[in-house]
Every structure is written in structure tokens, then in C-alpha cells.
Design brief:
Blueprint (H helix, E strand, L loop, with lengths): L6 E7 L2 E8 L6 E5 L12 H5 L4 E5 L16 H15 L4 E6 L1 H12 L4 E7 L10 H5 L5 H7 L2 H8 L2 H10 L6 H9 L4 H22 L13 E6 L17 E3 L5 H4 L1 H17 L4
Parallel strand pairs: 3-4, 3-5, 5-6, 6-7, 7-8
Antiparallel strand pairs: 1-2, 2-4
């Protein structure tokens, strides 16, 4: 029987001290799991252990999150993607399957699209994609970004540190499904350190700059995926409109909110296994 116990270590990945949770046999096919905001590697507590029966599961905290270093720079998905490449290089892992949620989901799109030689298959969960076309209908949905304005403001770090905002957001979006009181406390406490609350502020300032760039038609084009890719999206998402992902080929809308990994871990595992099996049958890019 494979050991599904989650262990923890610190890895120097390109000069960044990364907290890495991992499970499963070291010689099994590797899978990289990337969390989003306002969470940490703890997001994968169910999915990771389920996959660890026959995978080497890598669950890092992103830069500025959890126990990974918060250097005060690089709080954007492009840097997050570069961090993951550095992590894989440090671990000696040539190619991984991958699952990403929210910011980790967008990071996964960038990583898998630009480096298909390093990613064999990608399951994205409740995240926008880099190929969004700005239309009047899409523009109308920008009201949902109000929380980003708050997080990017001077009040953002204080709200994270001194109010129950994180627990309230998670509980409301999931309708209390899949998150225990202990889970909520873990995610909330991860932002109590000033440098981590500040990291979220920097992240959402980068997000607002990205929105402005999209409106102006700027930004470096991202190649379309060439590996097996699937987007799983909770249709009750209160943060990201379905309009933003409706044009993605094969997007699957399911009964969940934004935090589909917490609400529907068994479905995430099922779709991941199906996608990974499909990738194993297809020629290597």
C-alpha cells in the first residue's frame, strides 16, 4: 500500500525558500498541485492524499503564501510560473501532470501553455484563462472584481490580519460544504503575518494592472494549449463570472461555488485521473 501521509520540507527553488508538502511514492508519476487565494497547500488535503496512492504529489505554497518566503516582489502569475519551473528543476522532476485552482489555476495555464515539455496534462479549476477576449458582455462582469480593489487598497492587509474576512469568504462561497472550523482557521491564520497580508495586497495590485492591460489590448500573447487540458468550473462562483470561461473548449460547469476543490474533491480527483490517463495514451509533445 502506498503511503499517503503528507510530509513537509523547505526547498531552495531558484533562490526562493519554498514550503513543499508532498505525499506518495518518490518513484511514482509526479503531479503538481497549485492553490489559489486565500488558501495554501492545505487546499489539497483531500485531493492530494487521494492521488498519492499512485502518484508523487507535490503541493507547494505559492510565493508569499503559507510558509513559502514572502520577499515582497514577484507577486504575479508569471513569476509564480517561473517559481514552479525552478522548483521542478531543484527536485529533478522533468515533467508533471498538474492541477491548479484560482491564482494557481491561471499560473498553471501559463506554465502548461508555454512549457508543454514540462507538463503532460492540466486540470484547471475555477480560474479565468489567458485567452479571454474583452467584449461588452465581459466588461459588464468586471463589477465582480470589487474585492480585488479592496485587497489592493491600504485597507486590504489590515482586513486580512484583523478581521474574519478569509473565513467568511470561504464559508459563504462553499455554503459551509467541505471546510471544517479547523480548515477555516488554518487559512485565516496564514495571513496574520504582516508580510503575508502585504503579499496579497501586491498580488491584487498586479491583477488590477492586468485588467487595465487587457482593456488596452496589451500583454504578451500566450500560446494555445497543446497538451490534454480541462477546465472544471463551479457554476455558483461569486468571484469569477461564467462568461469569462464560457468560450473555453470543453469547459465543464458543475454544482459548486468558487472553491470547487473543497466542495467536490472526489470530482476533482475523478477528472484528474481521467485526464492523466488520456495524456498517457497520447504521444508526448
Amino acid at each position: 500500500m502506498s503511503d499517503t501521509t503528507i510530509t513537509h520540507r523547505t526547498v531552495d527553488a531558484g533562490g526562493l525558500r519554498v514550503h513543499l508538502a508532498q505525499a506518495g511514492p518518490l518513484d511514482a508519476p509526479p503531479v503538481l498541485l497549485l492553490h489559489g487565494w486565500p488558501q495554501t497547500h492545505h487546499l489539497w488535503r483531500h485531493v492530494g492524499t487521494a492521488l498519492a496512492t499512485d502518484h508523487r504529489v507535490l503541493m507547494p505554497d505559492l510565493r508569499g503564501f503559507g510558509r513559502t518566503e514572502a520577499p515582497g516582489t514577484g507577486m504575479d502569475p508569471e513569476t509564480f510560473a517561473a517559481d514552479q519551473l525552478a522548483l521542478l528543476d531543484t527536485l529533478g522532476v522533468e515533467r508533471v501532470a498538474m492541477i491548479g485552482h484560482d491564482w494557481g489555476g491561471y499560473t498553471g495555464f501559463l506554465l502548461s501553455a508555454r512549457h508543454p515539455d514540462r507538463v503532460s496534462a492540466y486540470l484547471a479549476c475555477n480560474t479565468p484563462h489567458p485567452w479571454l477576449k474583452v467584449t461588452p458582455r465581459v466588461a459588464v462582469e468586471t463589477w465582480r472584481a470589487w474585492y480585488a480593489v479592496v485587497m489592493a487598497s491600504p485597507a486590504g492587509p489590515e482586513l486580512l490580519r484583523r478581521t474574519p474576512l478569509v473565513a467568511q469568504v470561504l464559508h459563504r462561497e462553499t455554503r459551509g460544504t467541505g471546510l471544517s472550523a479547523a480548515d477555516l482557521a488554518i487559512f485565516a491564520e496564514a495571513f496574520h503575518a504582516p508580510e503575508r497580508a502585504r503579499a496579497s495586497q501586491l498580488l491584487y495590485r498586479s491583477y488590477l494592472r492586468t485588467l487595465v492591460g487587457l482593456a488596452r489590448g496589451g500583454g504578451e500573447p500566450v500560446p494555445r494549449p497543446t497538451i490534454p487540458t480541462h477546465l472544471l468550473f463551479g457554476r455558483r462562483d461569486g468571484a469569477i463570472s461564467r462568461v469569462l470561461v464560457a468560450d473555453f473548449p470543453g469547459v465543464e460547469f458543475v454544482d459548486a461555488g468558487h472553491f470547487v476543490v473543497d466542495e467536490r474533491p472526489e470530482l476533482v480527483v475523478q477528472r484528474a485521473r481521467e485526464l492523466f490517463a488520456r495524456a498517457a495514451r497520447e504521444p508526448v509533445v
